[in-house]
Write a structure and sequence with these properties.
about 130 residues; mainly alpha; two-stranded antiparallel ribbon; elongated
Length: about 130
C-alpha cells in the first residue's frame, strides 16, 4: 500500500509516517519512481509505534524494542528497558506532584487576606 493509504488506515499523518521511516521504526520498499510501498503488516506496526509513543517512549527506545517485537520474543533486556522507562515516568510524576504542591502553596498564599497579592515570600514556598 502507498503512504497515503497507510495514513488513512492508521489515522496517522503522512508526515509522521515519513518520520517513523527516518527513525528506522518503519520500513518501506521504493518503486522505480521513488514512491513508498508498505506491506499490509505496516498497519499493525504503526499502531504499535503509536501505542509506545503514547506510553511516552522515545523513538530511540522504541527502535531498541522493535527487534524483540519482530522476533516475537520477550527478553530480560527488553523487560529491563521497559521497567527503566516506567521508573523514568514515575520520577517525572513525582516531580510534577512536587510542582503542583508548590503551586498550591502559591495559590493559598495569594488567597490569604494578609498577602495583599503584592508579594509572596519565597521561604514560605520552599518548605
Amino acid at each position: 500500500m502507498r503512504i497515503g493509504e497507510l495514513a488513512t488506515q492508521t489515522g496517522v499523518s503522512v508526515r509522521a509516517l515519513r518520520y517513523y521511516e527516518e527513525q528506522g521504526l518503519l520500513a518501506a520498499a521504493r518503486s522505480g519512481g521513488g514512491q513508498r510501498h508498505y506491506p499490509d503488516s505496516a498497519v499493525d506496526r504503526v499502531h504499535l509505534i503509536q501505542m509506545l509513543y503514547a506510553a511516552n517512549l522515545s523513538s530511540r527506545t522504541i527502535l531498541d524494542l522493535l527487534p524483540c517485537v519482530d522476533a516475537n520474543v520477550n527478553t530480560p533486556e527488553s523487560r529491563a528497558l521497559l521497567r527503566a522507562e516506567r521508573d523514568r515516568i514515575d520520577q517525572q510524576i513525582a516531580q510534577l506532584r512536587q510542582a503542583r504542591d508548590r503551586l498550591d502553596a502559591v495559590i493559598t498564599l495569594s488567597e490569604s487576606p494578609a498577602s495583599g497579592c503584592t508579594r509572596v515570600e519565597v521561604d514560605a514556598l520552599v518548605s
